[in-house]
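User: New here, please read:
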Amino acid sequence: MTQNDCLFCELVRSGSNIRRADGFVAVEDINPKAEVHILIVPERHIDTFRQIGEFPPKEALRMLEFIADTARALQLEDYRVLCTVGPSAGQTVFHLHWHLLGGRDLGGGLPALALAEAERED
């Protein structure tokens, strides 16, 4: 997939986000699986977390800080952050992204099947 036909590259270019800083954007998931379901998307296109080494260490740190800052900005005290990697894990959009889930009690666990289903519906 090229950046020209990547759904998330288009989201980054469109400017329709709830937060943007330092090379990353936060957008609302169109099919939320929690009261708060935000996608954290780097502006730089890489397909999956497998290529995280393409980010210099400082940029990878900024990405994690952006996730934490977004949770704070949304006043989430307890939340879940997850990243699916590859089709059998449920990844359907091949642009690295993180799910930030919060709001009501998310419970003690989220089975792998539920994670895969949540990603397929994005």
